[in-house]
Amino acid sequence: MYKPLITDASKKYGNNRWLAYSNKLKRVVYLFSDLEYEHWLQVETDPSIINFCEQPIKMEIIENSRTHSSIIDMWVKYKNGEETFIEIKYSNDLLKESVKKQIYIQGVWCRANQIKHLIKTEKDIKLNPIKLSNLKLLIKQVSKSINPNSQTIDFIKGHIMEEPKSIQQIANETKIEFQILFNIICILLYEGSINCNFEVKHLGKYSEVWK
């Protein structure tokens, strides 16, 4: 639906640029701050989000016979069909007049087009170091996945219960090579098929998973 308006070819836009491969979109995404990167990690690994685009559209409004515009940071679409435009800013920047104007333009445009508009700051986005590390690992595992056998996936899922169980325990039960098992569990987490305590413990053999 949307394509990014600004890519890494842009010479004078943003600091701390990130290029990251999105398995969800099957393309490289372009991010222009550490905060945008951490937000993308959450969007990419949120199974309720089926589509997104960074820097998707230039929103334009006319006031006092003048055109005012702003390029918003992200558009997301959820499984339930809901769409949201998101502007990502550090909270200190919200005090700047230029940022206030930018957000005002976006708000007017979104209301006129009846689309939800959100402002997210580091207070909403910033991850604890453990979860940040785990989401990076999750994305890495999914990206290097080589289409595991569906029977193997079903066999592993049969050993994941409502009660939490460590990945090592599942490995002991299934006798599947640990790296293959770990990769499949990461895929299941990415898809939202199972749960994990990866907000409090580094993802590994002692992590617990459950339905």
Could you please describe the fold and organization of this structure?
By secondary structure, the protein is α+β, with helices and mostly antiparallel strands. It folds into 2 domains: 18-125, Trna Endonuclease, Chain: A, domain 1; 129-210, Arc Repressor Mutant, subunit A. The chain is 36% helix and 24% strand. It has 7 helices and 11 strands. β7, α2 and β8 (116-120) form a beta-alpha-beta unit. α6 (167-174) packs across α7 (178-191).
How would you summarize this macromolecular structure in one to three sentences?
This is S-layer protein. By secondary structure, the chain is α+β, with helices and mostly antiparallel strands. It contains seven helices and eleven strands.
